[in-house]
Amino acid sequence: MISAHRLTKRFGEFAAVDAIDVEVRRGEAFGFLGPNGAGKSSTMRMIGCVSPPTDGSLRILGRDPATDGPAIRARLGVVPQRDTLDEELTVRENILVYGRYFGLSRAHVRAKADELLEFAQLTERANSVVEPLSGGMKRRLTIARSLVNDPELLLLDEPTTGLDPQARHVLWDRLFRLKRSGVTLVLTTHYMDEAEQLCDRLVVMDGGRIVAEGSPRELIALHSTREVLELRFAADDHAPYATKLTDLAERVEVLPDRLLLYTDDGDATAAAVQARGLEPLSVLARRSTLEDVFLHLTGRTLVD
Amino acid sequence: MATTTLAQPREGRMAGRAFAYWLANYRRVWRGSIISGFLGPLFFLLAMGFGLGTLVDGGGLGAPGYVEFIAPGILAAQAMQTAVGESTFPVMGALKWQRQYHAMLAAPLGIADLVLGHVAFVAMRIAITSVAFALVAVALGAITSWWVVGAVFAAILTGLAFTTPVFAFAARQDNDSGFNVLFRFIIMPMFLFSGTFFPVEQLPAGLEAVAMATPLWHGVELCRSLVMGTATVAGSLGHVAYLLLWVVGGLWLALASFRKRLVT
Predict the structure, then answer these.
(1) Fold of A2-213
(2) Can you give the pTM of this predicted structure?
(3) Taking CB atoms and an 8 Å limit, are B107 and A101 in contact across chains?
(4) Which residues of chain B have a CB within 8 Å of the CB of A52?
(5) Four-way CATH pick for A225-287: 1.10.3210, 3.40.50, 3.30.70, 2.60.40
(6) Which of A21-25, A239-243, B177-181 bottoms out in mean pLDDT, i.e. has the lowest?
């Protein structure tokens, strides 16, 4: 569906996307993960055929965006990072107008709108003006709208950023259904739980490059341990404790307020810690998550 | 930098789809916009024509009275006002606030479709306010010639001579503060000094030349000469050609500006 080789986007001297290779297959859900400024959105805009690549090759649905942009976009669904809804029109009118951009007949779009409103659980709000709707509803409408042309490939740029947990779960459920119905999903996110929930495969981007690639499970296996033991001590500085524990785990990470021990058996490691006479204030043994991988690969420094 | 541009085969053939959006948007507000669109010019006509005009001797103007002199001028000037109003904030909004252009670009539409579709809609808006004003002017007896039909087309052309350059201007603004400058220092002086209310021969020689270079003066002269029966074929074609130059040059600039702004 998407094939990129040494794909590059430069703005002046700055390389927002730096020679990445990506293959997305039909029917899968593929994720771009990364901190802000990693190059996710620039990549998505190139895939969406609205931003010409500076270098490298890119083929989408077997075509070249440089020459077939409109033809490719006719078969894409796009959910941009910032909603581009017309807030003064009603929910239904937004879908109708958008459908017309694809040259679909009025009758077809009207029928399609009913179906999409049902899918997005917006039927009851069909005739409300968009402006006062909640963030979750607007996001669902943006997704519903992006499906008006029955796209083969749906691009979602941070689909759930800024939504409350309920709204996110509703959206995830809808995206699952789309995937089951055969739509290829490509999404960016900086929520690890979202990536674990939705993505079959993903790449982690940092500074415009791909730093890791695989399924969530593979990435955890490759870049982290099975479990993580979190220890909190009654001290301002956790570093001295770390030196006493290095041999108990594959890797020990010192955070301002706690220690992370990367280990294959959290409970056994916790027992070993206590056997050394150390008494942490709190002990938490948990499974390794994509978040551990992500922070390990992209660092804990705040990116602005 | 070796940036390839996104080719747009048969550019502009989907402009109708963009036009359809603006039309759908207009359906909500058309009543209010028609009323406000010609009430302003109507007040000018009443105050200047029937008020101030009673103190003015129309004879020296080559018209039966002052109101007959300014009515075709206001027809052209209101077309300019409508054009500029529709080409500033709505364009900025579609670029930046509501971002409708971005939605269109995510669909198969290209830059030329966006621009041509929106310009076509603005042309329709100018046509509506021009027809409405012409009807009022005829009803009040300020315009009596059947050539008013030609003058309406001349007014639409005048409006378009502002629409495309202002599209280009708007696409190059980061925020709306530039619009105030445009309104106060370009549009308002043009409205007052480009022959709408008095012949430009009244201006000092240097300023007269400036006034005659504005598209509004050509629009005013064209409308006025048509309804007063003083038009010559050569003169009218000259005005039309000059206005078309602005339309086409502005369109070329607008396409370049939109491309620079949106295709990054």
Answers:
(1) Rossmann fold (3.40.50)
(2) 0.88
(3) yes
(4) 3-6, 263
(5) 3.30.70
(6) A239-243
Tokens of A240: 């001295």
Structure tokens at B160: 């378009």
**Touching B: A residues 42-101, CB under 8 Å:** 48-55, 65-67, 69-71, 73-74, 76, 78, 80, 82, 84-89, 93, 96-98, 100-101
Single out the residue of A64, A72, A69 nearest to residue B6, CA to CA: A69
What whole-number distance in Å separates Cα of residue B156 and Cα of residue B223? 10
Quickly tell me which residue has 């550019």 as its tokens: B11
Taking chain B (264 residues) in runs of 10, the rounded mean pLDDT of each run is: 47 91 90 80 85 78 86 96 96 93 94 97 96 92 95 98 98 94 95 93 92 97 96 96 98 97 92
Beta-carbon contacts of A152 under 8 Å, excluding residues fewer than 6 positions away, are A1, A26, A61, A75, A76, A183, A184
CB atoms B5 and A52 under 8 Å: yes
For CATH 3.30.70, list the domain ranges present in chain A: 225-287
Q: Which two tokens stand for residue B128?
A: 């509506």
Gap from A155 CA to chain B (nearest CA, Å): 10
Q: Are strands A259-263 and A227-232 parallel, antiparallel or unpaired?
A: antiparallel
Query: Which residues of chain A does CATH 3.40.50.300 include?
Result: 2-213
